[in-house]
Structures are given as C-alpha cells and as structure tokens.
Design goal:
The structure is a homodimer. Chain A is α+β, with helices and mostly antiparallel strands. Helix content of chain A is about 20%, strand content about 30%. The first copy, chain A, has helices at about 5-20, 30-35, 40-50, and strands at about 55-60, 65-70, 75-80, 95-105, 115-120, 135-140, 150-155, 155-165, 170, 185-200. In chain A, the strands form two sheets. The first copy, chain A, has an eight-stranded mixed beta sheet, with no helix packed on it. The interface of A and B includes residues 67, 68, 102 and 196 of A. β10 of chain A pairs antiparallel with β10 of chain B, so a sheet runs across the interface. The structure holds a DNA duplex.
Chain lengths: ~200, ~200
DNA sequence: ACTGAGGGTGAAAGGAATTTCACCCTTTTT
DNA sequence: AAAAAGGGTGAAATTCCTTTCACCCTCAGT
C-alpha cells in the first residue's frame, strides 16, 4: 500500500479517532477544524488522497460518507461466529452463523475472508488454546504443515495442528492425552487460525 | 435497562447492522426505508424511544448523529494499550499508552475502566497465557484470591495469579519453572485480567 | 524554467439530512 | 370512558454537508 506523508497520516489518525470515540466519522467541517485548517477544501483534498491510496472508502454526496478500510489500522470488522455446524451445509452457510462479533482488524490478514469459531475440548491445551476460546480463522482450503488449522471431519469442525507423515497429512492435537487424527473418509481444511480471543479468563 | 418492543428491537438491530457493515450509522431517510416506513417521522420516534431507554446516544442536529451505547450489543470500545511502563508514573498515565486497540465490548465488564497489557515471558503458560498475548484488564485495586491479576512491583507490570498464604497475599506463576513472588517492598494490584487477545497464532 | 504534487484559502451553490407541524389509528393502562 | 403510549403518514422549513471554482504558495524532479 502506498505510503502516507506525515500530514496525511495525521488526517487518517484523526478520522480513526473520531470514528472510534464517537461511533461515526467526522464531517468535512469537523475534519477541517481538527486539522487546524481554514478551508473545507483542504479536508476534501486529504480525503481524495487517502481514498486514492486505499486507506478509506469515500462515498461522495453522503454526509460522513467516510469508511476506514480494514488496512487502515485501528479499524474493526464484524466477523461471523460459527455456531453449531449443520450437517452437510458448508461451514460459512448462513444457518451456521450464530452472531456477529466485532474484531479489531489488526488481528486479520489483509482483506481475506475470516470467521470465528468457538473451541470445544482441551485438545489444544499445550498451544495455549483453551475450551470456549474464540479462534479467528482465515478461510482458506490449504495450509502449511505445522500451522494450526480448522478442519471439517464428518461434518464436525475441529481445531488441530496440521502434520505430515510420509506421504499424507494428518491432524495432531497439542495435548498428550489426545491421539492424532488420521482422517479416513472425506475431510477438508476450512482455514488457518490466525488469532485468538478469550472471553473469560479464570 | 428498560425493555424494547419487537419493532424497537428491530430498529436497533438495523442501526447496529448498518453501523457495523458501513462504518457509520444510517440517516433518518435510510432508516425509514429499512424500517419499511413511509415517513421520516416514524424513524424519529423510534430514535426518541431508543435514546430515552438508553440504547443509543442521539445527537440532535447532526447528520447520522446516532451512537450505539456499549450495552446495545455488538458495540466496541477503544482501549489503551500500555507499553513500556515509565518508572514512577501511574500505569494509566498518558506517557505509558502505546496506542489504542478496538475491542468488542462483549469482552468487557459493564462500564468499568479497562486497559490492555502485552504479556512478557512464559510465566503463565499453564493458564493458556502466552508471551505477546494482549490481556484485557479491568482496572481495580483489589481482586479475589485465585484470580489472574496485573500487579505493579518495583515499577514493573506483571501478570500473575493472586494467591494467599496464612495471612498475606502473594503472586503465583502458572509455570513450574517460575517461583512464586512474595513481594518485599511496595506493590499494588492494578486490575484483574478478564479476557485475552492473541494476535499471532503459530 | 517548467511541471506536478502536496498543502492551503475563501466563498457560493446545490443537495442532504434533520426538525417540526398537524393529523391519523390501535392498544394498553388508569 | 378517557388518557397515555406505541406506531404511523406527509409536507414544509431550516439547518447541515458536500461540492466545485478560482487562486495562492512551496518544494522536488526534469
């Protein structure tokens, strides 16, 4: 992404701050004032530049029509939380979505699709992943060996580490009490765990 | 908080959805359309009710001046991330604030003050708290025995479990390789760890 | 010496968005 | 039976926001 000048960065930070604190972006007049400028056109020019460089989406002819892009930092995105997985349906089918949770975009990777999954069981204990943790998953059909992935086996979603033996992939738990999983039938990788949110620390 | 009727709930959900997806709240005209109403005054009346019941903050005479309150669900709050702790200064002093991170408000407890701290070291490994994790801390000067707390010892902030021996409190690591800490001089509890965010899962 | 890009001012015009008014209906509470 | 509260329509008035135009300066690159 194209770099920003000092003043442009300041303008972006101001927009992000207002959006965060107030719940909605500033108007041109408000931005002009916060920039310390005298003309609204100054703010317009900054928005034009930030929009061209991809830091914001600017909808013209709309009051406060400034949207921070995910890459703008300090942004946030609503991600679907996958609840009970309905047999047969794809993981991201609407029927599987329990609710939306707002997540800081700094946890995500670029603009790839992500979702959330609640961890069941203690199989990833040694990796610091506890039951009921929310894992942030980047949706992708492949992953590298050694990465923590979400796999769909017999219609059930599970979080494990991807491993390899001789010629085939298998799934490894991070807990000596759990055996490795060498899937027999159909299975698939749904994504890669990129972050984690724990709602209740005890 | 006062209950909402079915239609009021629907209106609130629409506002929350637009705010999440678009980054800013709807205008009266937009809300009117999404409600399926014909008159903008219908939307005005809903906003009046939602505002009175405390689900939104409505700034009059402002375009899109609708702010979801934290209790409205799906909300998010910008919390200060404490960086290097300057000796002597209180933990939440401005000089210690590295940046602000947006956190879903469902992680927080009511409207108490919270902050974020980056975990250093492996001393809480067995509790599923890894180095570089961000812990969400509810600022409070006391905590119950057995809770995970942030303590300030000799000007350094540390995350440990609060324990008690005979008559005095001490701090316990969740890792057999780390010894318990029986603080000698001045020390204080800065808050209680209520949630956790891991930015990079390896 | 010229050009382009960043940064800036000021004001007028047109479109967007908010308010307020009067009036309607139904359901629940007093 | 009357009052209060939720839900609703339509339109005018007013304020708020955005856009655009003309013109200014400085600095880096050609």
């Amino acid at each position: 992404m194209e770099k920003l000048s000092r003043k442009q960065e300041k303008a972006l930070a101001l927009i992000a701050k207002r959006t965060r604190e107030q719940g909605y972006p500033p108007t041109l007049a408000e931005l002009t004032e916060e920039l310390g400028a005298a003309s609204k056109n100054t703010a317009v020019k900054y928005l034009r530049i930030l929009s061209r460089k991809g830091y914001i989406v600017w909808e013209r002819n709309k009051a406060r029509g400034i949207q921070l892009t995910a890459d703008a930092g300090g942004g946030e995105v609503g991600l679907p939380l996958i609840g009970a997985v309905a047999a047969g349906a794809p993981l991201l089918a609407e029927q599987n979505i329990e609710r939306y949770v707002t997540v800081p975009s700094c946890l995500l990777q670029a603009s790839a699709p992500h979702f959330l999954l609640r961890v069941a069981g203690q199989s990833m204990l040694q990796a610091g992943i506890l039951p009921d943790d929310l894992v942030v998953v980047r949706a992708q059909p492949h992953a590298a060996v050694g990465e923590v992935v979400v796999a769909l086996i017999d219609g059930e979603a599970t979080v494990k580490r991807l491993a390899q033996s001789a010629d085939r992939l298998f799934l490894k738990a991070e807990n000596p009490e759990f055996a490795d999983i060498h899937p027999q039938g159909e299975w698939s990788i749904q994504g890669k765990v990129v972050a984690l949110i724990r709602e209740a620390v005890v």
